[in-house]
Design goal:
By secondary structure, the chain is an alpha+beta fold. Helix content is 41%, strand content 17%. The protein is built from 13 helices and eight strands. The protein has an eight-stranded antiparallel sheet with strand order 1-2-3-4-8-7-6-5, covered by helices on one side. The protein is elongated. It starts with 6 loop residues before the first helix and ends with a helix.
Length: 372
């Protein structure tokens, strides 16, 4: 029994928030469960083209239901990637949505700490002073993130915007993005909106590069079903072609492309991408670990051993690299392999995601340990 074919994907989890998740209960029915990842053709069956405003969204498309036609009485925007998959939504309430009737959501907000607090300049906003504080809250589950932009959260909470997205796209759906805050200043309906001046975050990296990187993550880590390595490889290539401004992003795009090519069985090409990643960002343990797995597939056991050794030297608590190192040296150095397996077990104790690998390692330790 071997896990070598799972090593590349086994070192990643869909979302680091899988433990100690914040509360996410709400009685505000903005997005029905299961709607994310919906295909655009199915969405259009529910919402005729005549009710929608269509806009370009990078390589994808935004389909918007204006407030005067929507059930929520807010501007409802649905964002689809170039493959026709719904990856995020944004709901904008230009004159605010009073949360007084929504006791569950109000309780949830009291349990969350704001991720950001700032002042909005408020104009023509019923019952509000010229300046009012606003708070951005974030919650979610294992694969999705929900964000709420709330004004006067402590006294009389009023919702201005809410977004729901699958996690790879989360940075593109913060209500604090300048482009989304500007929608409060220039609403599509006839009701007055917020004056937000030049507030809001902007990307330091090209939007198309970030969008394609998120598309790659979605396909590679099976956020919308099975892993789709053809799509992830295409997405990472496009993200590289669009260009990144920092070496960290560019190196990781080459690394992720290498992982996708590994998944497609194109090991020589995968190795080339990982070496390119290391040329940009040397001494990165994750890349070295995955390079080692690729070298094993190519029959280069010595190269793989060197990669795994370097990975654990750089990061002694890198559990999966320890496992890979132990598995590689077990046939020739069982004593060292036993030590590495035992180190792995100590590092992953109590981690549910490693249960299958732990069971395998326990069997190997039992076999390798000297009999008394």
């Amino acid at each position: 029994m071997t896990l070598i074919g799972l090593l590349l994907t086994g070192c990643e989890t869909p979302n680091p928030r899988h433990q100690n998740l914040p509360p996410s209960e709400t009685d505000l029915a903005l997005l029905k469960p299961g709607t994310l990842c919906q295909r655009k053709a199915a969405f259009l069956q529910q919402h005729p083209h005549s009710t929608l405003v269509t806009k370009a969204w990078g390589s994808g498309q935004e389909l918007m239901i204006p407030a005067d036609r929507s059930a929520s009485h807010g501007d409802e925007s649905y964002f689809f990637d170039e493959d026709g998959t719904l990856v995020g939504t944004l709901f904008t309430f230009s004159s605010g949505l009073d949360l007084a009737p929504y006791s569950v959501l109000r309780h949830t907000l009291t349990l969350l700490k704001p991720t950001l607090e700032f002042y909005l300049t408020v104009a023509n906003f019923s019952g509000k002073s010229n300046m009012d504080s606003s708070s951005l809250y974030e919650t979610g589950d294992e694969k999705t993130t929900t964000q709420y932009l709330v004004i006067s959260a402590r006294e009389h909470p009023t919702l201005l915007q809410a977004s729901v997205t699958i996690d790879p796209y989360v940075r593109l759906f913060s209500p604090y993005r300048r482009e989304f805050l500007n929608r409060l200043r220039q609403p599509t309906g006839n009701q007055p909106g917020q004056q937000v001046d030049s507030q809001g975050a902007e990307d330091k990296e090209p939007f198309l590069s970030l969008q394609q990187f998120a598309r790659g993550q979605t396909a590679q880590l099976s956020y919308c079903g099975v892993q789709q390595y053809e799509i992830s490889a295409d997405a990472y290539r496009k993200s590289i072609e669009s260009g990144f401004n920092t070496k960290v992003w560019l190196a990781e795009a080459h690394h992720k492309l290498g992982q996708s090519l590994f998944g497609l069985g194109q090991y020589e090409k995968a190795k080339a991408e990982m070496l390119q990643s290391l040329a940009i960002r040397p001494n990165t343990p994750e890349i070295l670990n995955n390079l080692g797995s690729t070298q094993l597939k190519l029959g280069d056991k010595a190269g793989a051993l060197a990669s795994f050794e370097k990975a654990v030297t750089l990061r002694p608590n890198y559990a999966i690299a320890r496992f890979n190192l132990a598995e590689t040296i077990e046939p020739t150095n069982p004593k060292r392999a036993l030590s590495e397996y035992e180190t792995y077990l100590a590092l992953v104790e109590g981690i549910p995601e490693e249960a299958d690998r732990i069971a395998l390692v326990q069997q190997r330790v039992k076999k390798l340990r000297p009999q008394k």
